[in-house]
What we know:
By secondary structure, this protein is mainly α. The chain has helices at 9-16, 20-29, 49-63, 68-80; strands spanning 35-39, 42-46. A two-stranded antiparallel ribbon has the order 1-2. The mean pLDDT is 91.
Amino acid sequence: MEQDRTYSIGRVANMVGVPKYKLRHWCDRYLPHIQKMDIGNMQHRRFTDVDIELIRRIKEYRSKGFTLDAAVTQARQDLDGGKE
């Protein structure tokens, strides 16, 4: 059985052009579903392709002047088709 590919926060930051500190904030506050893995005494976030698309859309809405709350809401609606 093939597992979904996941990406580190550093890789995602480079892919989407959002600094790691912002991604951490977004995850902690708005994207609690992001997978966290305990490695030693640290937690490492792992992002799926769907997570990355959500982050790209959030960034796009932020660049259009949306507040972060509104950008997250709109990006989720885009991907979910309005389902929560």
